[in-house]
Design brief:
Layout (H helix, E strand, L loop, with lengths): L1 H16 L16 H4 L4 E8 H13 L4 H10 L2 E10 L8 H8 L7 E9 L4 E10 L2 E11 L2 E11 L1 H5 L15
Antiparallel strand pairs: 1-2, 2-6, 3-4, 4-5, 5-6
Helix pairs in contact: 3-4
Length: 181
C-alpha cells in the first residue's frame, strides 16, 4: 500500500511539474443565465459543437469569395466547440457581478493563463482573455467582458491558432478587443 501511495504522489508531482500542461478542462461550465433573459434588452446564446459545428464549417467554406467566411472556415477547422453568451440591459445593475464571477473563477484553475486583462473604473469595464495550454498548443480560449449594462462570455475549445482569432474580432459575438477597427 505504501508503494502505490508513493507512486501516486510521484505521478501527481510529475504532472504538476510539467510546464504548459493543461490541468483544467478548456471547456468552461457556463450557466444558462435563464434568470437574466427576461431582464435583458438583447441576448445572444451561441453554442456550436458536434454536428452544428460541422455545418458551420461547411457554410463558411461555401462562400470562398467572402474573406470573413474564409477566415471563419480556417479558424473553425480544428475547433471542438464555440460558446458565446451575451446579455445587454437598459439599466445598470440588472445582473449580479457574481453571475459573471462564477465563470471568471474557473479561470484561476491551473492550466489557464491570463493573456489580456483590462480593468477600468470609470466607466466600469473588465475584459479578461485567458488561454488553456497543453505544451505549446492552445487548447482553449476564454473571453469575459463586462460593463454595467452588458456582459459577454466566449469559450472556444480545440486546437487554436491565436493569429486566426484576431481575424474574428467583432464577429460571432466575439468582442472587438483591438483599438483599430
Amino acid at each position: 500500500m505504501k508503494f502505490s501511495h508513493s507512486l501516486a504522489v510521484l505521478g501527481l508531482a510529475t504532472t504538476l511539474a510539467l510546464p504548459g500542461r493543461a490541468l483544467a478542462d478548456p471547456e468552461l461550465q457556463i450557466p444558462n443565465f435563464s434568470h437574466l433573459r427576461s431582464k435583458a434588452v438583447d441576448s445572444v446564446d451561441v453554442t456550436l459543437d458536434g454536428f452544428l459545428l460541422r455545418i458551420a464549417r461547411k457554410f463558411a467554406r461555401s462562400d470562398a469569395d467572402d474573406p470573413e467566411a474564409a477566415a471563419a472556415a480556417d479558424f473553425l477547422e480544428n475547433i471542438k466547440s464555440v460558446r458565446v453568451r451575451n446579455f445587454s440591459f437598459d439599466e445598470d445593475g440588472a445582473y449580479s457581478k457574481s453571475d459573471v464571477d462564477s465563470v471568471r473563477k474557473q479561470l484561476s484553475s491551473p492550466g489557464w493563463s491570463p493573456l489580456v486583462q483590462v480593468h477600468r473604473n470609470a466607466p466600469q469595464e473588465d475584459v479578461d482573455v485567458y488561454v488553456n495550454m497543453e505544451g505549446d498548443q492552445v487548447k482553449g480560449l476564454a473571453v469575459i467582458a463586462s460593463e454595467p449594462r452588458e456582459f459577454t462570455i466566449v469559450n472556444i475549445v480545440g486546437s487554436i491558432d491565436v493569429d486566426k482569432i484576431g481575424r474574428l474580432e467583432g464577429q460571432f459575438g466575439i468582442p472587438q478587443l483591438s483599438q483599430n477597427q
